[in-house]
Amino acid sequence: MLADADCVVSNVGPHAHYYFYLRERLALSYRIVRDVRTAIWSSYLFQEYLCHPFLRQDDTILVSSFYAQGVYEAFFPLLASFPALRCYPLAACFADRRLVRRKRFAKADSGLILGYLGRISEDKNFPDLIRLLIDLNSAGASTSHRRFTLFACGHVHSSRCTPQLVEQELVEALGSSDVFRYFPPRAHAEIWDFLAEIDVLLFPSTSNLETLGRVLIEASYAGLPVICGDHAAASELVDPGYLCPVRYDKGRIYDCHNDHSLGRVDLEWMKRCLLADELRPATCFESYRSHPGRFLDALSATGADLMKLSEPLVLTESQLAFIRSIRISMPSFPHRSSEALNLTGSLIPWFLGLQGLMPQVPRSNWVDRLVRLTKHPDRTARFIERTRDTNRDFTDVGAIDIELCNVAKFLPTFSLD
Asked: What are phi and psi for residue 328, nearest 5 degrees?
């Protein structure tokens, strides 16, 4: 099947190295288009580490933002010589814009509904929004007579962010929790109803995983104002007046195996934006409207035509300063291509074994071996529990990549100068 392929697309996780491995082992000629979905994260770094020795002229990396491209070219300088396209065709699955209607419009003397959409976690700085909500609603906190309510929709990722703890904190501070409402995660087709309920989207994330902030584009499509921290791709997407300064934690060593909050957004700045007389809708969706077509063009273009699709890498001042401050510690690149081939080949039995697809060796054997060698036992335990009852149909493929970094002893760290 691969012998007849002109192009292979790898975009269901950081597994492109297996296609590079097969191309080398089987002497095939297809080009490979791969994407990166997270920034400073072991599994996507591992993908690039293993692909590095085998890149061919038309192999293409898709990035969601200039920021993501800047990060990966800083870590893997060779990438600057190969096609890199800012191409994130998420708009192909957006609802018809004529059906995305606002259900309410805030007035200066009415309440303002603040919205948060996405993973509810500490690396996204969700607890800071609760502090902001308390401040906005405290007696005498501002001259505004508005009532501020926070609607939060998404998977609760951090124990500190459970709705019960949030409500308890609000009761202790304000005497009531009626300024907060939690919505369970929704399918993508249903987020537009949530966005229609809010007046402004808040995005305080300083996560190491951030490459875009997909919700910023979705909120823009829904006609909402967006206020966020000046982190990752935000300065490419958001009006400078709505970018809140970030104070990063310098000198701390982070592992790339987990998500981290890298700093704090200036909540006073965010508060001043919310108290303004008028909030202007974001327009960043417009720059992504053409990406579905751009993606299709990237699949068929080669050589000079492919390079024409590439845009000059332009980073904002804040992005450039942040990227220059990153100090990454990774294993040195394989000196010979045979080393990368052997390492990738050694992971294939693990990949299949942890899926329960190696009949001669029970899955329990692979799990026991993984438990003995992991450097992150808590995370590995969650992976094992979550995949205990899978159907041996790759339904646990979304977590296996990070566990295989343990197997390969690929455990990079980083700090910010």
From this structure: -100, 140
Rounded average pLDDT per 10-residue block, the chain, 417 residues: 95 94 97 96 96 95 97 96 94 84 57 96 97 89 75 96 97 97 94 95 97 95 96 96 97 96 97 92 93 94 94 96 98 88 96 89 94 95 86 74 95 97
Q: Are 42 and 257 in contact (CB under 8 A)?
A: yes
Instruction: Enter the pTM of the model.
Output: 0.94
Q: C-alpha distances in angstroms, 28 versus 17, 45, 88, 154, 251?
A: 14, 25, 28, 43, 45
Which residues sit opposite 92 in a β-bridge? none
H-helix or E-strand containing 263? strand 263-265
Spans of all domains in the chain = 1-86+301-331, 97-288, 334-409
SS3 at position 251: coil
What secondary structure does DSSP assign to 38-97, as a single string?
-SS-HHHHHHHHHHGGG--TT-EEEESSHHHHHHHHHH-GGGGGS-EEE---GGGGPPPG
Question: Mapping DSSP to helix (H, G, I), strand (E, B) and coil, where does residue 31 land?
Answer: strand
| 97-288 is a CATH 3.10.290.10 domain | no
